[in-house]
Write a structure and sequence with these properties.
By secondary structure, the chain is mainly alpha-helical. It contains nine helices and two strands, in the order ααααααββααα. The longest helix is centred in the first third of the chain and has 31 residues, at about 55-85.
């Protein structure tokens, strides 16, 4: 495993595989969050299922996801630094003029997505970003809020979060960066794995675009839904 990680070819393969794994998670995460459109009971019940019914399985999945996430970031940064070190003086004639903007900015959109992920955890998982006044003069962490069935009130967290203009704008910017990153990342992963050829090039491009667009539309729909009042109040 160490030899695989140290080699450029092995590192690229692991980046591709971990990237596809994270993409699958992002899609599933988005689908689960769309339950907010079904109302408070649906999203709170879904959150309760993940936290209580899965139990230990959830923590195992979280640990595996964290490992994949860290591996993807570390290897991607290492490959970028190796590329820069191998050619400290840039070419006077750019051989990658045909490269897309998404491809040239992968490291930067990746950094934005990584930082946003940390913020997202602080916001919804740990409740460090926003608090709520539960009674006159009493401010509590959103994690302490319960719904009518005694479950953590995830719905109220989402609505309160996206009615805050600065938070909503931050999420929109992050989702655009994620769209750009996914659009090129999915295509690049298939190419690294040797699955891209003259027959499948267009299919893979459309697949990457479709996945990235679906995630962008799904996640932004939640923000816009809260803004517009489409998200039900109960």
């Amino acid at each position: 495993m160490r030899a695989l990680i140290d080699s450029s070819v092995g590192a690229k393969l692991l980046v591709a595989l971990s990237g596809l794994g994270l993409t699958i998670y992002v899609v599933l995460h988005m689908i689960g969050n769309l339950k907010v459109f079904q109302g408070k009971d649906a999203i709170n019940g879904y959150a309760y299922f993940l936290k209580h019914d899965l139990g230990l399985i959830l923590w195992i999945l979280r640990g595996g996801l964290l490992a994949i996430f860290v591996l993807h970031i570390v290897l991607s940064v290492r490959l970028k630094l190796r590329a820069v070190a191998a050619r400290p003086v840039p070419y006077q004639y750019r051989r990658d003029v045909r490269a897309t903007t998404a491809g040239r900015t992968m490291i930067w959109t990746g950094i934005v997505v990584g930082l946003f992920t940390l913020f997202h955890l602080a916001h919804f998982t740990f409740g460090w970003v926003k608090e709520v006044e539960t009674s006159p003069g009493v401010v509590e962490n959103y994690l302490a809020l319960k719904d009518e069935k005694g479950r953590h009130d995830v719905y109220s967290m989402v609505v309160a979060g996206f009615t805050e203009p600065s938070l909503a704008v931050l999420y929109i910017v992050a989702q655009i960066a994620l769209f750009v990153h996914l659009m090129h990342g999915v295509q690049s992963s298939f190419q690294t794995l040797g699955l891209k050829n003259w027959l499948s090039t267009h299919l893979i491009w459309w697949l990457g675009f479709a996945v990235a667009l679906a995630v962008l539309v799904g996640n932004l729909a939640i923000v816009v839904g809260v803004w517009s009042g489409v998200v039900p109040t109960v």
